[in-house]
Specification:
By secondary structure, the chain is an all-alpha fold. Helices cover about 80% and strands about 0% of the residues. The chain contains 9 helices and no strands. Helix 3 (about 35-55) packs antiparallel against helix 4 (about 60-75), helix 6 packs antiparallel against helix 7 (about 150-170) and helix 8 runs antiparallel to helix 9 (about 200-229).
């Protein structure tokens, strides 16, 4: 009964998106890596997190906590200390906070869907100011750590923080912030691929994440309209 409920929980398009994402990640892992199984596992956890997050399900941020830890380890292997510090020191803890917030703000009686929140213009300005402060602080931390590819790494911090903030606040725009972060990460790992071709599988992973995050924004827009009715 639970298996049938799970199958019906996702739409045919969502099942297609998730399975296609898994296939593409596995294909490019086999073509360009074949050794970094931690990358494969973290990619699978990450893309599964996104499909649950697109449904407003707290399983999304729960899996993001695990992904953040694994991705931090992968980033350390290429001296992307900014990514490591961002995901271990910011994204993972903020995902814990977001998980608690989602569980405390369900839509209706079910814990399977979070109540979508609208942030005010005033809070939006506050979020931008806070993001700027965090980005400047991390810039000097990354500089001290002699981080590779400083500029995109710093921009990644900015988009990551904004994404986790909006996730915590249950705003549909969290997905667009993550999509912006995906674009930066694609650039970062392309630069890494120029030195080690095995990292191309990580690049493809974030390209897949980009598609899933864009769908997440569309899904939350629909969810918000449905809840308001």
């Amino acid at each position: 009964m639970k298996i049938k409920r799970l199958i019906n929980y996702f739409s045919p398009f969502e099942w297609s998106l998730w399975l296609t994402s898994l296939f593409i990640i596995f294909l490019f892992f086999c073509l360009f890596d074949r050794e970094g199984y931690l990358t494969l596992i973290s990619s699978y956890i990450g893309v599964t997190s996104l499909i649950f997050a697109a449904k407003g399900n707290p399983t999304g941020p729960a899996l993001m906590i695990i992904f953040s830890v694994l991705y931090g380890i992968i980033s350390y292997s290429f001296s992307y200390y900014g990514e490591m510090a961002t995901y271990l020191g910011m994204t993972a803890p903020m995902s814990v906070i977001a998980l608690v917030a989602w569980l405390k703000n369900p839509y209706g009686k079910s814990q399977a869907e979070v109540k979508v929140n609208k942030i005010s213009v005033k809070e939006g300005i506050f979020a931008i100011i806070l993001t700027t402060i965090v980005t400047i602080a991390f810039y000097f931390i990354l500089l001290a750590l002699n981080t590779a590819n400083m500029i995109p790494s710093t921009i990644s911090v900015m988009t990551s923080f904004l994404a986790v903030y909006l996730t915590w606040r249950r705003s549909p725009y969290y997905a667009l912030a993550y999509a912006a972060n995906d674009v930066i990460l694609i650039i970062l790992w392309i630069l890494a691929t120029l030195e080690d071709i095995s990292y191309f599988s990580v690049t493809v992973c974030f390209a897949v994440f980009l598609v899933n995050d864009l769908y997440g924004f569309i899904s939350w827009q629909r969810m918000q309209k449905r809840q308001e009715k």
